[in-house]
Amino acid sequence: MRRYPRDMLLHRAGFRCEYCHVPAEHSSLGLHVDHIIAQQHRGGHEEENLAMACAHCNSCKGPNIASIDPTNSRIEGLFNPRTQIWTNHFRVVGDKIVGITPTGRATVNLLGFNDRRSISRRRHLQNEGVSFT
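Predicted structure:
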């Protein structure tokens, strides 16, 4: 099993969580290597199955690969940073991240992008000039 250097994964991620886009230096517990498809679902350690995630997104995502789109109540796959483009699924509106596709909405819902703590942190960082797109 090949292990990919953390520095390479961080650089590829732009030094931010690949889900909520919080910069690594503003993530209280740093960024973690996430298996996009969890090992229990036969996801491997290949580079294309690894993403950098903040502790909040990583703990909310867990081994999930899908969630419910709150708009249509259908099961939708979660956002995959290796195969999908963030701006095709999400928009930053003020201090919130809004899902604009079923995948985006399911991911926002499951990962708690707009819980009170996340909004507060995002608002503080935006006031410091940090962009989330």
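Summary: The helical segments are 6-12, 55-61, 86-89, 102-111, 116-127.
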